[in-house]
Amino acid sequence: MLASIALAKAFFSAGYWVQTFPVFGSERRGAPVEAYLRLDREKIRLRSNVYEPDFVVVQDARLLELVDVTKGLKKGGWLLVNSPSPLDAPSLAGFRLAYVDASGIARERGLGNRGQPITNTAMMGAFAKVMGSPDIETLATAIEEEMPAKKAENAAAAREAYERVRAPGLAVPAPAALGGAS
């Protein structure tokens, strides 16, 4: 939820109109949570759930086996997954895929713990890179304003994921030029 608010603030600062809202299902620790961010360069008049997203961010790759994360995702839409390696699943055909080792980045930055790294800000950085907006410094500022703790570490995680995200056709530095990933 904090991630969608910080992203909304960053996109607003970059000149977008934004809406963000959570959808709560089972209210138990560890249950999948959904948060939506609607953005446009024009004023947003639509006030409803998002049924056909252009982009889905999956912070835990295990959800790919448990939940239909592509439900409603437009053909050719983006799927960004927290994964240390490329995805190869027939069910993902027809979508553009991007991945980043957000868990490894979060562990390196001391966000969460080894068993439960907090990946939201790393995923935000990867999302900004794939979207081409907002720029990483606008996003880092929003993160530092919104996150309740470890502000510098969270902003650094976003910057690192921005550089380490991978997707076919995405302009990123060669993997050998990057620091070690876990």
Task: Please tally the helical runs, counting DSSP H or I stretches of 4 or more residues.
Answer: 6
Looking at the structure, what is the overall shape?
globular
Flag low-confidence runs.
172-182
Q: Helix-strand pattern, N to C?
A: HEEEHEEHHHH
What is the spatial order of strands in the main beta sheet?
A: 3-4-5
CATH architectural label: 3-Layer(aba) Sandwich
In total, the number of domains comes to: 1
Helix content: 25-40%
| Amino- and carboxy-terminal Cα gap | 26 Å
Q: What name is given to the CATH topology?
A: Pyruvate-ferredoxin Oxidoreductase, domain 3
The averaged pLDDT comes out at 87
Describe the structure.
Helix 4 runs antiparallel to helix 5 and helix 5 runs antiparallel to helix 6. The protein has a single domain (2-176), classed as Pyruvate-ferredoxin Oxidoreductase, domain 3 (3-Layer(aba) Sandwich), CATH 3.40.920.10. It has helices spanning 2-13, 63-66, 102-108, 120-131, 136-146, 151-164, and strands at 17-23, 34-40, 55-58, 78-82, 96-100. The strands form 2 sheets. The chain has a 3-stranded parallel β-sheet, with helices on one face. It has a two-stranded antiparallel ribbon with strand order 1-2. It has 182 residues and is α/β, with parallel strands linked by helices. It is globular, with a radius of gyration of 16 Å. It contains 6 helices and 5 strands, in the order αβββαββαααα.
